[in-house]
Amino acid sequence: xxxxxxxxxxxxxxxxxxxxxxxxxxxxxxxxxxxxxxxxxxxxxxxxxxxxxxxxxxxxxxxxxxxxxxxxxxxxxxxxxxxxxxxxxxxxxxxxxxxxxxxxxxxxxxxxxxxxxxxxxxxxxxxxxxxxxxxxxxxxxxxxxxxxxxxxx
Length: 153
What we know:
By secondary structure, the chain is an alpha+beta fold. The chain has helices at 16-42, 47-57, 67-74, 78-90, 112-131, 133-136; strands at residues 64-66, 94-98, 106-110, 140-142, 148-150. The two termini are 22 Å apart.
């Protein structure tokens, strides 16, 4: 198979415009990530800690997460997530709480300091995403049948 052909082979080889669209999108994603990394560091938090706080706050329907859920959200191994939580506990950003319904589960919850950090940092991220909305929109691809296909679908 040609290295520039799509893995499924359905849409054929990539055009120059396809490569340009991929490069623009990757640049936008990396620019956003760099903005995030610099912004959180300016506020005294590591990027990993911000991601942890956001993952906890972003759990649908509740204000806590298990270590396993956080590992999945952050795409980390369980032991790496435990280390990250340990450091965040040490920095006063999160705390552990027993799960009253399951003694084997430990809930990771935000402290007041963690809540305050999110209250400052998340609007900055939302505003940056709004500014970058067009650049962060995945490119549209022409498909074999002429309909548009969005990258990743």
